[in-house]
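Lab meeting minutes (informal)
Scribe: AK
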Amino acid sequence: MSTSPASSTPSTPSPTGSAPDLVHGPFTDDPPWLIDPDNLAWKKDLDGVRDLVRREVPKLVKPRRLPEPQRLAVVGRHLGLGVARWYVGARRKGGETSRADLSRRLRLAAEKLGPTYIKLGQIISSGEGLFPAELVDEFKKCRDQVPPQSFADVRRVLESELGAPLETVFSTFEREPLAAASIAQVHRATLKTGEDVVVKVQRATVAELVHTDIKVLAWLAPFLVGRIPIAALTNPPALVELFTETITEELDFRLEAENMLDVGRSLLDLDQHFFVIARPHPTLVTKRMLVMERLEGFAFDDVDGMVNAGIDTVQVVRSGMVAFLEGALLTGVFHGDLHGGNLFVLEDARAALLDFGITGRMSPRKRAAFLRLLMAATMNDAKGQVEAMCELGALPRDSDVDAVVADLGLEGEPIDPTKLTPDELIAEVQRLVKSLLAYGARLPKELMLFIKNLIFLDGAIAAMAPDLDLFAELLHISTHFATNHGQRIAAEIGVDPESYEMDLDGVKGSFGVDPATESFTYRDLLAQRELIRKRMSDHHHGN
């Protein structure tokens, strides 16, 4: 929404400011106010609030005989009409044409249905690799096309939260929003005390609408199973539950402000100074209002602007990858919705993180499972990967690990998808999906957020460092973790750091690259992906 970046890894300078609250988080060096986490009135009883929100999820997604009839009729009309038109039309053409037409109709229906469905679309739009490409591309159009609520509504919400007229708190308040999203919008303002701030305001009545819509989605989802191609590993009921877990915490901005401080503490504990986090205001935070310090910087996609300012964009990407991985894997708390609109780069090459409504929080056991999963993947340990997936909840805990490994064909040499015929490639994808679904595979929230962020970083490499040697970078990151965190990781998951060795040949095989290949850039990877995409397209056009 509105904040800016920082830098880490050995080559990143640490901030030199002396603000007293830098001991609490990677904030800016010139504070508009100071943060004392132990004396923030809005933090009172937030553990209970967060627990209450989590316990509300099963109640919201519980199948009902019939949700609110009026809203159900509206949803049924827009979604049903769109799906029906696809069914009698483009569906018969199959392949990309069918998926593209269905995706367009679902996106149009989502925009007509409002905030809840737009937010669902935005989550899908970040899920490249998790959802069909046509669906992802179509829902990307939802990101920046959410009409703002009127200033009269903004004023009404703010004055309700403040308990006072707007002018008693703000000396200036821009009527036009800096950004408008499905749940809230952001405005520039200046406090009566002189500080330049950003104000996040929740849309009027959005909480009630979201709860109503979730009940409608939970009722509709079982009827959609197997009927429309929404996602490979997320059937409609599971998608609704995942969405509900994600969106319900976004409806209380006190939780978001706490997320800001917790992610900041996580980064600080790791001596990680790549990311910068704006300070939430000590008193001006409520359930529907969040006031924070204003930061300025380069948009994350303004590569030319950064280069012209002398910023090393390769280092920005490298530092971002390490900072994200360290936060997620070593503390279990990480920003859960990285995308270009939630980041910008400061003149000192640090990156400002914005919008903490979606934040990943892993229990110690789940975080250990994540560590085991990534270590097993880099060691080409198929059994270890499946065991970690069971611990994460992506597969049932009582799964027969050996049977899963055998059924998925994980023990042999990695299959090079570029060497398969179109029919073989499609058959292999279908086999894997069928096997995973048969074992009860699902996508836990934390894993979904982690993958989404990796996909964003993948795109950041494409834009900011297309000639980055991916194999050298994997070795760099592996060495960084082994050198800086090897003993800690070993103690937490029982792996002898001396026995760890990255299986680079196995990694190369997973990319479809000959083990003798010494360098593999992102441009090379894009060429591989385009070849695979073309083969799959050729298959659809041939049927």
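Next up, CB showed the second protein from the same session:
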Amino acid sequence: MSDKVIIFDTTLRDGEQSPGASMTKDEKVRIARQLERLKVDVIEAGFAASSEGDFQAISAVAAAVKDSIVCSLARANDKDITRASDALKAAKAKRIHAFIATSPLHMAVKLRMSPEEVLEQAKRSIRFARNLADDIEFSAEDGYRSEMDFLCRVVEATIKEGASTINIPDTVGYATPELYGDFIKTLRTRVPNSDKAVWSVHCHNDLGMAVANSLAGVKIGGARQIECTINGLGERAGNTALEEIVMALRTRKDYFDLICDIDAQQIVPASKMVSHITGFVVQPNKAVVGANAFAHTSGIHQDGILKNRETYEIMRAEDVGWSANKIVLGKLSGRNAFKQRLHDLGIVVEAEADVNEAFTRFKALADQKSEIFDEDIIAIMSDTASAEAGEHYKFISMSQHSETGERPRSRITLRIGDKEVSSEAEGNGPVDASLNAIEEVAKSGAEQLLYSVNAITSGTQSQGEVTVRLAKGGRIVNGVGTDPDIIAASAKAYLAALNKLHDPNQAKMNAQMTP
């Protein structure tokens, strides 16, 4: 077996299944480019057959990515597989990922197919896929709860038909590390042609053991591909966290004796980008990428760290991309310095007009706050990218009045299409009043599912990052807004969500029938 572990990132597909985490085509491309900088081996860009929007997003990612394999998920049928192949046409290196359920429960209740019918369907689908691509992955959905004898037959047959990667998912997060590792090992031992394919693990975090199960699948079971997401993003309790897998393999190389090619210094930038785009804030005590991951408040710990970092730190913050949060730019900084900082942060801006737009936003922010941090620049670029996608609703200006004993009132001016309108409304607080004022003229009728505020940096001058989640007609969308004024950030976030609801190209229903 090789000592290299293939990192298969499914943030853009399985991660997107988190309610509210649906991403636009442009957002997927931005994340894919960051994953490429991270040196991810395989990027699963989406599920081509699930919607026209996802098909277009996969096509855009396939055209943008040059150094990683781009993958599309497909059910084990000719229509889905053809759709996946078509979406991947522009990819320099492509993979079709076909799946079918193999557990007794899923076959009987969901598929309503007999085991023999499932076996034949799996064989036919891989045979068909091999006519369209050389790199084929087969997933046995709910594989861990499948009967061993039957699963061995399915895996042997799909390898024989041309599957070069075999994935055994713990679809519902039911496994425990030792048992899951032994399960993979038994399969590899019993399947005669197991050496003809790379074995992969895909674990969900329902019992909080996704990372441990994946590592056991590698160490005990002999798998050499791990399927994971940035920040552990995913439906229900999420997926295996890429950042934890990578740093476990690196920090405990003495135990695992395995390597991966990930550029770990790109981990924190990737985490922040995914968090900003999806609106899923990373908990402070999250391993590797949480704000407190390298913080020490105990006097004993601080004393030890000052004497020798290794007393209480097993990783260095800078090795995963944390900076000292030092001030890099200010209101007197020029355009070249701004462009250089974008380059240092790994932010690629191809069009000169986009650089000009971002620099204008930077100067406006520098007039509002004296200290500009890396996180502020990342937020500026995210706002610029959102604006490029097109805005039906655009924030112009606002004023609000709030006084003890009186009901808060807000007046907001915005552009709807090519018309500028103003509206006033009251609310339980200044934020509520401002959003009510927007709704007075937008009349979206959307249900607000989430409102959250996060400080981008420390201090009272920090920009506020607001996430608003709206639901309408079966769709759930996130809007994110940033501004030193929390009220203005809230209005921008609400308008960003309304723009997603308004854009028919973003009308995507997340498929929930996946590994």
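CB comment: Residues 335 and 359 are 7 Å apart (CA to CA).
No objections, moving on.
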